[in-house]
Amino acid sequence: MIVHFEPASEEGIASVVRSAAAERVTLAIVGGGTRSGLGNPVRADRTLSTRRLSGIVTYNPAEMTMSALAGTPLAEVEAALAAKGQMLSFEPMDHRGILGTTGEPTIGGTFAANVSGPRRYVAGAARDSLLGVRFVNGRGELIKAGGRVMKNVTGLDLVKLMAGSYGTLGILTEVTFKVLPVPPAAATVVVEGLNDAQAAAVMAEAMAQPVEVSGAAHLPESVRGRFIDGALPEGAATVLRLEGLAASVEMRAEKLAAALSRFGSASKLDAGQTKALWAEIRDVKPYADGTARPLWRLSVPPSAGQQLVAALRLQTGVDAFYDWQGGLVWLRMEAEAEAELVRRYVRALGGGHATLVRADGEARARIPAFEPQAPAVAQLAERVRASFDPARIFNPGRLAAVA
Amino acid sequence: MPETIGFLKPRQAVLDRRGEIIADLADLLPEGCLISDERGLKPFETDAFLAYRRLPLAVVLPETTEQVAAVLKYCSRYGIPVVPRGAGTSLSGGAIPQEDAIVVGLSKMSRILDVDLFNRTATVQAGVTNLYISEAVGADGFFYAPDPSSQLACTIGGNIGMNSGGAHCLKYGVTTNNLLGVKMVLFDGTVIELGGKALDAPGYDLLGLVCGSEGQLGIVTEATVRLIAKPEGARPVLFGFAASEAAGSCVADIIGSGIIPVAIEFMDKPAIEICEAFAHAGYPLDVEALLIVEVEGSEAEMEAMLQGIIEIARRHGVVTIKESQSALEAALIWKGRKSAFGATGRVADYICMDGTVPLSQLSHVLRRTGEIVASYGLRVANVFHAGDGNMHPLILYNINDPADAARAEAAGNDILKLCVDAGGCLTGEHGVGIEKRDLMHHQYNKADLDQQMAVRAAFDPQWLLNPSKVFPLEGRPQA
Ligand SMILES: Cc1cc2nc3c(=O)[nH]c(=O)nc-3n(C[C@H](O)[C@H](O)[C@H](O)COP(=O)(O)OP(=O)(O)OC[C@H]3O[C@@H](n4cnc5c(N)ncnc54)[C@H](O)[C@@H]3O)c2cc1C
Ligand SMILES: Cc1cc2nc3c(=O)[nH]c(=O)nc-3n(C[C@H](O)[C@H](O)[C@H](O)COP(=O)(O)OP(=O)(O)OC[C@H]3O[C@@H](n4cnc5c(N)ncnc54)[C@H](O)[C@@H]3O)c2cc1C
């Protein structure tokens, strides 16, 4: 039977880890468990949950920083921020829809997986918001890195390392991050009826304008109807988000629509529709379909996204839509995951990484979830890991083929 | 002056082989890429932390990544320390060599390799200067955001080494937030690539780790950076205050109100006088403190933002508000600010502190800084990136007076401890170098530092890359 630890303090976590390290007992680290389907399956002797390490430690709206214990539900963090008109700028997605999981995502899991949404392309990823961490390493030592100030180059940036390490370097106990004011107004310019290649050009053009686009996505005809209850205009929709002061959003929207008028007719979504639409793009609504059909998340140079999908279409059945100016492709396969094909095409079209976010158990057991790294980088990453967790007790297998 | 900061003892075995080593390096490199005579080595003996100097064993100036790899492989095989160097503008002594070290200078690798406007990226060699990138893409309406005041001289490699910032980083972030990828050479000569034009590579964020690692993890030879569309317009506005504390709390309130300008820079009276005498920027001379607040966007947007900022400034008793009326005036305002260190250097020797504090502590730390420096019988000028709490007290002293220099160093240490105790850190953008190395214990405990050193050792088990820097010399793990 799997023994489950739920320490309620940093010291409690440290002591579990110390005895686990001494006995070479491996630990699966769980936050809310909402992304436990993500990454390679973990085979561990015991499970350690951060569930009881919960609560906001300090929140200073005037300094735009918050510290929270790692097991704090993301929803609690977001509600506290919203009450003061602030938000997480990186728009963490909710994986429960596409993965069909339940439970509460935690702030620690969000940073451990470097979860970021549409605004990532202009405002940075979760890792860019993370200012400081406390964690327990594989020796059971409590380590702090970073702090609560915006700029800090004092020593090596272990904060960045912890972000996206999926619990393989240490167990985060507390995270300190910066937050941003919620923009008072928002609107979305919709350019209608473009094919994927035209859309890529339009999004690049939009990003080159001095109008501060904060979201650039392309929703082909096959998925368009599944967003905001079918309220987007007929045909494919290329959507560009603008945020800021109300008067400024108004003006920038006009300017942007004028600059893009030669590509197709444009319409505009109001603040309410904008909010709903971008939340659905963030959470990959069209593929939150209750199936286990293979779902890939491809991060490539924006110019390569639509080329990649066009090339794959000639080989197999796929459906796709684009975020991050076309550089983030959500690709759903009709049948098999076809990892070899997908990864070969990514390499051929300028490089990037294909992450298998969803698939049935058989495929997940066979296919490394993360893009394999170059051997020299993989060896280096392994040495880095050993410097945190020499006995390799944390999340064995999670990053396999990566680290 | 008597040196209070130590360097590692030179390795006698390396010094004894000097002739051989130079001959071997000559074989590895093309003509004109090796410096070994004393006169030629002199310009490399220090950086902008002028109080310390060490003549290196030799300087190499490779032209390609392969040559960098060949040199590192050689040095790792024979146990020779290496100090990477860009333009040598480090303010913390990060690029100061040591007697047994080979300096690897990137100055010959100064080409822009690729500008990709569709994907908004530029790929450049590490020796390209910061400003050169913005100049190269300016005509197309783009720029590279991080803008250290030294941007005319400093290199991208050095910016990555120090995770450098600048006045406009309040809105756009520092180097690490604008860096997409690097090609780098590990100490054993292995060439690796991290990141690239596709965002958020899976696996550990080694790119984020390398940024700010002060030349201790490898030598960066190429970098891919993010380009940003230039705003429609930008306007700096001067706000004069009768007291530094008022200016400090005004900054905290602007940020707290949710308005994020592109830049909020602070100058106190001594700094205003020094910069005005140098740049004739039109700074008010009858105030105790000045904020330069820059907003950007269309006319109407700038107007709307300024209204909000002016309202807040009034609540803090602003005495002068001066908007730049032309591009020329705006340029002069920034010229004055960006030449602050150079201008100060004309009136006195100085050391520049770089602690960062939470905004709520700004006024307190400013006041205490003044008291500390006065208690040592010295003067201070404050000119810094207020919007992100990154303070730069310039402690003025006479480099030729040993007692004065020792007092300046001591005052600086007290100020940095003050920053840490106020919830901040030792350095926001200039790096630890040798300058703050022995203060690291004040910010981190042993376990914290041991973890950082263990990570460092994963890259350079022999501790030969820029070895006298960042980590206290005692207590380092043995290879
Ligand atoms: C293969 C894969 C693909 C992914 N793809 C995407 C994607 O496309 N887009 C996106 O935005 N996000 C993605 N994620 C991130 C993921 O959704 C996050 O795991 C989620 O935010 C976690 O919240 P949770 O609290 O439910 O964490 P859990 O599901 O419990 O944990 C998530 C991960 O973080 C670790 N973890 C949790 N808490 C801690 C802690 N306190 N300290 C250290 N480690 C901890 C866990 O071990 C686990 O590896 C992906 C993750 C994986 C593995
Ligand atoms: C007048 C003046 C104003 C300044 N203003 C600012 C400012 O506004 N903001 C700011 O952040 N800094 C500022 N600085 C500090 C300095 O300019 C920055 O730290 C700069 O990034 C250093 O770049 P460099 O090319 O001169 O690097 P160097 O000083 O040569 O080296 C800096 C560090 O990086 C390492 N390094 C250099 N190149 C490489 C490489 N290719 N690979 C690996 N490591 C490398 C070195 O070993 C060293 O540790 C200022 C300095 C001066 C003199």
Automatic annotation (TrEMBL), chain A:
The gene is glcE. InterPro entries: FAD-bd_PCMH, FAD-bd_PCMH-like_sf, FAD-bd_PCMH_sub2, FAD-linked_Oxase-like_C, Oxid_FAD_bind_N. GO terms for molecular function: FAD binding; glycolate dehydrogenase activity. This is Glycolate oxidase subunit GlcE. Pfam families: FAD_binding_4 (PF01565). Keywords: FAD, Flavoprotein, Oxidoreductase. Its EC number is 1.1.99.14. It is an enzyme of class 1 (oxidoreductase). The keyword Oxidoreductase applies. It comes from Sinorhizobium americanum.
From TrEMBL, chain B:
Keywords: FAD, Flavoprotein, Oxidoreductase. Its EC number is 1.1.99.14. It holds the Pfam family FAD-oxidase_C. Signal peptide: none annotated. The keyword Oxidoreductase applies. It comes from the Bacteria. Its cofactor is FAD. Coiled coil: none annotated. GO terms for molecular function: FAD binding; glycolate dehydrogenase activity. This is Glycolate oxidase subunit GlcD. The gene is glcD.
